[in-house]
Task: structure prediction
Amino acid sequence: MSVLDNVDAATNLAKNNELQLLVFRINEANASAFYAINVFKTREVVESKNHYLTQIPSAHHLLEGTIILRGLQIPILNLPLWLDTTLSREEIKRSNILICDFNGIVIGLRIMSAYRVIKKNWNEMHAPDSYRLKDDGVVMNDTRLEDGSLCLILDYEKLLSDVIPQAMVNVFEDTENIQGIDMPQSLKNGTVLVAEDSKTAQTALKQIFKNAQINMLLFENGKKLVDYVYALEENARSVPVIITDIEMPEMSGFTVIQKLKENPNTQNIPIIVNSSMTGNNNRREAEVLGASGFIEKTKSHNVIPLIIEVMNANT
Result:
């Protein structure tokens, strides 16, 4: 039975500030680190030896080639090499491919073995400052397994932007999208608050708001944003809109929505979810909790028109 067969895909995990992680390793060394990915972004794990790899001429060095799986051509990315680990030919034969879905972009990540699925609360996910010292860092946050082993969560959006940049958001499309749109005065004069922990997504959003000449204040997780807004007290009502990711250490985006909607000073602030977890369940849950909009991260260049649409609908 596949390790993913036991995955509980219910969205109420995130609603309860919880998540499930698929834990895996990228080589066979006893001292090999544990890595993890949210199971909502995974489809299955397949054995590498059972799938023929077609190489692509002049491709990025981390793009090994493609495989055909259930009629779908899937690019295979060399995750160990991205993490400065080179697998031997024998290890490659014994390796597995983790099939993932990011915003509808299906890719395969080469891993050595899937370990197991664990459930964690977002407040058990930590983002040490050392991970954020450089913009090219690949680790977003970490957690601990039951035996105390460190488990690292990677910035998979950075991997995609490095290897398949055309699949990511085009920040310059935003300038064209807002031409001729009447912008609410409160948006022109206010500051949009954004909770986002991915350096890659942060960079894109900064450029998008700069292009639109709109002020924005960035928070590296949902808890920091909520604490900031609560501290504003009645002045929080002047915040034009809030944008939040779903997956964040300490506090998920769903919990951000819950807390802001239960506070009289913040309950009327429009909230837009900007996430790579684009399944219908997540969209529906965001709406049920009170979010005014939902946008895929690969389409973040459309976020300004969406903000204006949401603000106009709330007036």
